[in-house]
Specification:
alpha+beta, disordered C terminus
């Protein structure tokens, strides 16, 4: 599965709607702002219903955590995955630190703060809306690539068609 930043496809919306956590007095977390930027699956046809939060420490610009979160039920992920492995399903549903991403020493404390953000139903609805926008764009692009004649051949192929013609 490949994940792309929401910002890459919808920069204006991402700048306006990215959630920021402001920390004043949380043990183990330096005071400051942490941006919870979103990344979504870019595989056409996949309906994983998950987001990866790439958490950026705003003052330093440093990526300090990557947290996976799925908003559907564990039963949904079991059916989607085709397996009923409780450990895997717990990670799919999350929130969980993405084990395949580099994590900073701040990652566990940021993971502990995420339920506070997710307690806002409007924010969860926004994540779901962003997911649908992103997946609609991915699937639309994939369907255009599949239509006959909808894509130009690569330049090398076009040049070959001119072989033997005067320049």
């Amino acid at each position: 599965m490949y994940y792309e930043w929401f910002y890459g496809r919808f920069p204006d919306i991402a700048l306006r709607e990215t959630r920021t956590l402001t920390v004043f007095d949380v043990p183990g977390l330096p005071p400051g702002e942490y941006g919870f930027t979103e990344a979504y699956c870019s595989k056409p046809g996949c309906d994983c219903r998950r987001v990866f939060f790439n958490v950026i420490q705003v003052e330093t610009g440093r990526l300090v955590a990557t947290i996976a979160y799925g908003w559907e039920s564990v039963e949904y992920y079991a059916q989607w995955l085709g397996r009923d492995d409780p450990h895997v399903l717990r990670e799919l549903k999350g929130p969980a630190l993405n084990r395949w991403s580099e994590q900073s020493e701040l990652a566990p404390m940021l993971l502990a703060q995420l339920p506070l953000l997710l307690s806002d139903p409007a924010y969860v609805a926004r994540i779901e809306r962003h997911y649908r926008m992103f997946k609609d764009a991915v699937n639309r692009e994939a369907s255009l690539r599949k239509k006959p004649g909808s894509a130009k051949p690569p330049p090398a192929v076009r040049r070959k068609s001119k072989v033997g013609q005067p320049r």
